[in-house]
Amino acid sequence: MNKTASSAQPRPTSSAQPAAEASVRQPARESNIEAIVAYVESGIKPSESHRRLGIEIERIPVHVDMQPVSYADPFGVAWLLKALTPHYPRTTYDDHGDLLGVARPSEAVTIEPAAQVELSAGPFQRLKDAYKTFSAFEDETKRLLDPHNEKLVTLGYHPTAKARDLKLIPKRRYQFMNVYLSERDTAGPCMMRGSASTQISIDYTSVADCLRKYRLAFCMAPVLALMCDNTPFYESEPRTHPCMRMGMWQHVDPDRCGLMPGALDPDFTLRDYAAAILDVPAILVPCQQNSWCYDERPFGEIYANRTMSVAEVEHAISMTFPDVRLKTFVEIRPADSMPLPYAIAYGALIKGLFYSEESLDALDELFFGVRDADYEPAQNAIMKDGYRATVYGMDADALAQTLVELAHNALDAEEQAYLKPLASLVERRVTLADMACLDAEEAEASRSAD
């Protein structure tokens, strides 16, 4: 693996490289900006297919005593994927014959770097269909794993292991990412190996609708992280502050994580987004020799002399990990993995907020004037004070309550019921992580008394 560039040096930003200068060094830069913009614009949906959600829930495989289960264990994740093939017959293997995923129409079961199991499903028009799909998956994996004293848990971070003690799956992409991110900051291996999330994807009906939702999703991301906090343990120890996931992501790689630069500027455009993607160091690129080749150059330099293909655009975007990611949909990423009722409640929240003009208008007013410089202070305040924090000049608890009320008012009666688990947490100003920490403290007190 040839690593000639210093990964400790921050990449130049587009603001430090005027467009004219970049065009001289990258003759194809303009056509690549246009290719990325065209890719995002290809996601525009007609209004009649609106209001759909894509949902991804990652789960952590453990033994019943909460110790890790790896990919290659006797009844590990490779075995589980193979056992799922009668129901998910579309299989994905790597060059060495290792099974990496199974699928069926509208559902894909894949694995993350340390064998976290993810079901991506949808898009769903109705929350009841999402609940049915994910519930069926949970029932099937429970049926398979129970006889072997194993299970999949929905937590934001591995409950007993340190990340670097967890084995990577046999996927070349993750080997390269592990090397690069381990040198960038302290939490790259933690993100890859220890974490698990709930991600919701939403549609847009125009460029303006896309950028509006993208900006508002970023504005809300710190509060959404708080509402969905489910990380009571981090690196095998009790958490040290609320929203450990948020703190972890601040120390993965500033070139590709957190806030997309400029995203909270009302004048932010798809061209700005595309330019930012081109300035991200690649880590890896597709190549014929070994499927993936290591490359620390920015994508704009790698494709300096030719226009990127759609597959290359998709890959470049996939190698950025902001709190909100723009593909052919808006992918909202700050939530921890949560038990199914809470994950679907989160879906209800997102649906009520983003698929209602009344909600969007209210959010525009609520977050008017929020800019990039306000984002990290909002995160830090929440990690310090939780629901007692001040965010963008507002009380975090009142802001979270407002989001719940806006979503509730935008949903019909059937779907309002799915919002209740998360709404109840917000009403009580507690998180799943808070409750787990309290349970752990009570259990420890009981052991001490004995």
Automatic annotation (TrEMBL):
Pfam family, one: GCS2
Record has ATP-binding as a keyword: yes
Catalytic activity: L-cysteine + L-glutamate + ATP = gamma-L-glutamyl-L-cysteine + ADP + phosphate + H(+)
GO terms for MF: ATP binding; glutamate-cysteine ligase activity
Keywords in alphabetical order: ATP-binding, Ligase, Nucleotide-binding
Compositionally biased region (Polar residues): 1-17
UniProt keyword Ligase, yes or no: yes
Biological process according to GO: glutathione biosynthetic process
EC number per UniProt: 6.3.2.2
Domain of life: Bacteria
EC supergroup of this enzyme: ligase
Region (Disordered): 1-27
Function: Catalyzes the synthesis of gamma-glutamylcysteine (gamma-GC).
Family recorded in the similarity comment: Belongs to the glutamate--cysteine ligase type 2 family. EgtA subfamily.
Matches recorded under PANTHER family: GLUTAMATE--CYSTEINE LIGASE, CHLOROPLASTIC
Protein name, entry field: Glutamate--cysteine ligase
The organism of origin for this protein: Xiamenia xianingshaonis
